[in-house]
Amino acid sequence: MPRRARRLTPPPRCCSIPRPMTRAQPRAQRPPSPPGAHAPPGGDPWEARAVPAALILLAILALQGVLFIGEASQTSDEGAHLAAGYSYLVTGDFRLNPEHPPLIKQIAALPLLPLRLSFPWGPLWDTSEEWNIGRIFVHENRRPNDTILLLGRLPILGLSILLGWAMFHWGRRLFGARGALLGLSLYVLDPNVVAHSSLVTTDLGVTLFIFLAVYALWRWSEAPAPRRLLAVGVMTGGAFASKFTSFWLLPILGLLGAVLIAARSPLPQRPWTGRSPLLSGGGRTARRIVALILAALLASAVAAAVVVICYGGGGLPAYAQGLARGLAHSGSGHMAYLMGEYSETGWWYYFLFAYLVKTPIGILLIVAASIAALLLGSRRGFKDEMFLWLPVLTLIAITSLWKVNIGLRHLLPVYPFLYLSAGRLASLRPGGAGRRSLARAAPAIIAVGAAWSLFEAASIAPHYLAYFNQLVGGPKNGHLYLLDSNLDWGQASKALRRYMTAENLPVIYCSFSGNSDPWYYGVRYQYTPGSGNLTNPKTRLARVPDGLPREILAVSPMILHSVHFSDRDLYAWLKGRQPIATPGYAYLVYDITNDTDAHAYISVICLNFGLADLADFEARRTLRRDPKNALARAVLQKLREQEDKRASPDPAPRP
User: Fold this and answer.
1) Is 157 helix (H, G, I), strand (E, B) or coil?
2) Same domain as 153, residue 226
3) pLDDT tens, position by position, 359-374
4) 473 conformational bin, left if phi > 0, alpha if psi -120 to 50, beta if neither
5) How many CB atoms lie under 10 A from the CB of residue 230?
6) Is there a single domain that holds both residue 207 and residue 157?
7) Model pTM greater than 0.85?
8) Among 159, 131, 157, which Cα is nearest to 74's?
């Protein structure tokens, strides 16, 4: 007979075998937060459309960037950056422009290599004269300056598109498709983002790598793996190889490490291997801190290797030299302008004010509503919110203490975190009374804010760099509040040329700031002293002849407000006059036809700058129209005295 199966019964509870308790739990990959975590019941129909919609938004960013690239003449620093990057690639010598690390300049110059451009070696190279090298390299080469700038700027625009794509991916994990697309929309429609995404400068590059370093750390905290820790190191190294303000990333990463300890995130005991057990939140804090330190050391080693590679393995002395310059610049400050005031040490509220007046009001409305939602309790977990807000708050605190107040662009690393966090407004769910009201109003706020921002982006195109919102009366009034790279960076030469063509002006007077000479863009002008100009425009023989129907003076706002002159009143005689045009919002145009006082003032300014030929020319022009003009007579008298002093022999030295 077959044996009957014995019925197995569980042992009594008192006899159950206890499981061993260990602090190091086996690795259990914790999946990242699923997309649409805040989606309403029944799913979000936007999830299926998310990627096409994100690509459309990024295409809008690319279109705006190309429009700005086509419009913007070379800004002050671009020539030096492009020439330096090109020299790094072809020689491995990092003597030019050491005040900025090489990576972004190398990326920008890479498309220029197939053009086999000429380079001004010789005395300029021997003396590391980066500004004249940059001028010659961009404007006196085998290819047109527009071609060289286009190929150098497109890689920066590509980095910005990559940053937008990373924002979308992280936003989708945090706030679902709607939130991700809202955050990306704010990024795409911000004129400041568009402008600095399209210039050969280091600001967008360091913004990208700071964001990717934080994002990579968040991914590692969600599912620790060596490849994700490697990504943290690579992105941190990319930041350090892009700009010296990347040192601001150190306190951010340190604070986020403390967040991982406080949030009891699982940490691998041996972060260099994928088979390491995780130290759970219930383990000893000391062991988890040691594990985090080990991870930080590994990421730091990778970051250092990235910097060494970017310097070709042997350029680290240039890194140390540039870092010393950067620290000296930060310590001494930089002459800056804010609402009619001047300071070398800056103002604690400079960047906050700049963001307030240079951001479309529609974007400000959405950001403010999203902060209100956060305060009313629409939050993700502690760790997620800290990863969004600690970078914002840390960067605001640092820049509030920083003495270099020359442009909102230095606050650019805040933008992706701030706009990513604003995506929560699209995923609001009813809560308390205040949150319920905000949730009902959110669709209208988003619609109004997005439409307003879209209108602003279309209205300012293609002059994105000069954007100011209605709080200060728009871009025409911008120079009354902020200058430097917020408005006047040399980008408006083409707009000035178009104005001259439309007004049938063969030659004008022009005073500009920086190293971007309008002459290279078809602006024919008689030089009027500006600031930071290279030698070539000062020695040019172009003159405004007598007998022209109209005599026009174009002055850049930096010159009008005499930011870099010791005499703040050098051009004060223009401030009471109304400009007749503002080409590109970065030039103020005045009609000085038959205005003897204006010509006399120009002769005085030329005399003060040691431009004897121009001073004599303008003084005589003034006297032909007004023989009794005292200023013109004084200029000629001073010139005669200088000539007599040069002609007379030096007195014999006393024994």
Assistant:
1) helix
2) no
3) 999 999 999 999 999 9
4) left
5) 16
6) no
7) yes
8) 131
